[in-house]
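My main concern about presentation is that the manuscript never shows what a single data entry looks like. The format is easy to grasp once an entry is in front of the reader. For illustration, here is how one protein appears when written out as sequence plus structure tokens:
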Amino acid sequence: MYERKGECMDREKLYDAAFRYKKAGLWKKLWDTEIFAIKLPGDENGFVSVMGKGGDYNAIGLYIGEEGFQSFRTVANDFHDYASEFEAHEAILVQNCLQMNLGNKDEMLPEEAEQVRAYAKAHGIRLSGANAFPDLVKFTPYYHPWGITEQKDADMLCHALEVAILLAEELKNVGKAELGIREITPFTEEVPLFDIGDGKLEKLGMTQLPGDKPARFNVSFSNQIAVQRVKKMRKKGIWECELVRLPKPSQNEPDAVPYYPLFLFVVDRETHFLMPTTLIDNFENKPQNGVDSLLNAILTQNACPKEIIVRDDRTTGLLADFCKKAGIAMTKAGRFDPLDALDEAMDAMIENLFPETAGPGRFDDDDDEDYDGDDYDENFAEMDEEEAALAMFDMIDHLEQLSTYDLKNMPPELKHFLGEIAAEGILPPEYQEKLERALKKM
């Protein structure tokens, strides 16, 4: 478990940089996918995303090194469809970065809001309006976002803020394209690299982005006593299995950072019975815990399947070696293939245990009949020109706030309608750009 350590950092410099960053307003000039790099101690680069131009969430994120940038790719540049709601939620939890968010006091821990107030009072800063409070947050994959407590993290984030402040000043005189700043895509290979020298912004040319490395996952099962026991059992029926990340964290101890555990769905295809399995903690360090979850289900139910069906790479890598050694056939279905017993169990868990995260079911298209491709045209046709324009702007602003998962699940007719609007090129440049960004994610 990732333990929260007692705070050992100086907030003074960080708050000073945060308030100057707010005044500089770099988010008014850059989109969150217009990434630039900064030089960090130890010959490592950090990759900076500036958020705020497209909506209410105002922050600067520092993604450190290869692992950090890989997490940015997953969250920001993930254009594939999600096979389930569990997968969609997990994609958000991979984030590995340091952030300074500009928000309001109600979104912060009371003691952290009080520290901001104390700093502001000591320096004559008035805290008023939206996004007045800087919040310092560390994102660690599969853990709940937590306050920054260590000086090395504070120093790196402070350096990112200082570079951002100087960059905002530089952009008053030159265009961002002249500095090499462009929206990155899955095919972008390099971004501009900056540092600070003698209090000025140093342009160090372009630097290569870390390559995309698909995760490879295989667990070797070494408990020969358990293997022999299962091997001798009578095998009957088919089980459908999938390893998922739950959308709510657990916290084993008061001072521990809450962790999002995994759960192995093990469902009998014929009876639709969900085998009782336990939550899987510390999976990244001990993936064997996932295999043990299946083993415990077999032993406690005193039942062993003749065949196990999976449909994702992670569950395949988790169970393949165990199944081979234990004499259980394994079949891998297509990633989007329906497995009725498994899908029913997954939808039931979302609806009953995590209702606030529930959306349409995995293959739920019952509402498609509510959407008529002509409805959107007719609705806008009934408005006068000004009303139609304002309604369209409101719709596009709303799209900017939606997650990639929500955008991908928009009705096909609405996607087609918006695509036609974008193709006509009749929107003001700001809204044309917003719409095209949303359509890319659909």
